Amino acid sequence: DLPAGEQQKNVDYILRELFRNGDMEEVRRILFMYDIVCQYIVHLADRLGPDIPPHITIDQAIGLMHVHGHKDDCYHRFASSFIPGAAITAGEILETLWASLNKVSSQARTATLAHRAEIIDDHMSDNNWKKIINM
Question: Does the structure show a pLDDT above 90 at 115?
Answer without folding.
Answer: yes
